Amino acid sequence: MEFAAGQLLRETIGTTVRYEIRERRALPGDETPTELVGSFTLMRTDKGILVSTDIHCTVAGRCSRCLTEITYPVLLAFQEEYWPTADASTGEMLPPPDDPDAFLIDPHQILDLTDAVRQYRVMAEPMQPLCKPDCLGLCPRCGYNLNQGLCGCPRQDVDARWLALTELAEKLEPE
Predict the structure, then answer these.
(1) What is the DSSP letter of 74?
(2) Is 33 inside a domain boundary?
(3) Other Cβ atoms closer than 10 A to 127
(4) What pTM, to 2 d.p., does this model score?
(5) What's the pLDDT score for residue 35?
(6) pLDDT tens readout for residues 7-17
(7) Are residues 155 and 76 in the same domain?
(8) Alpha carbon 106 to chain centroid distance?
(9) Which of 98, 114, 148, 163 is 20 to 30 Å from 76 at the Cα level?
(10) In the beta sheet, which residues pair with residue 71?
């Protein structure tokens, strides 16, 4: 996801360019290709280029309860300013921005969005993805997927300290 930014850096402040994206690619640190669909808007600012995105992607993973493979949608909507490292007209190197983590446009005026998309995708992913909201997970004794039915494990003995509460719960159950 590289864009030639030299011409935009020579334009007046506020000039915008919009790009549509529809591609399948593996992002750095990912072995599985991801379908990216959406748009980028690049706007010239007084210091660099403001990138606004609205990208939808599908991420492959595992359910955090039952460990089945799943895919789920992720929306990447962010704005980041990219700073040039060289003057677009003269080619002179520019001083680096104050922020050491700022996104940079390389000296050849190429703006690469790959790392920003990867970072925002990682932040947008759910911490514990589920195959379905009411996933039952795995049996803690035998590891059977409880979404496929009950396992053959015997019912666990109740700790004597909880016996009174268990009896109360059985009395309160509707018959």
Answers:
(1) E
(2) yes
(3) 5
(4) 0.76
(5) 84
(6) 999 999 999 99
(7) no
(8) 25
(9) 98
(10) 60
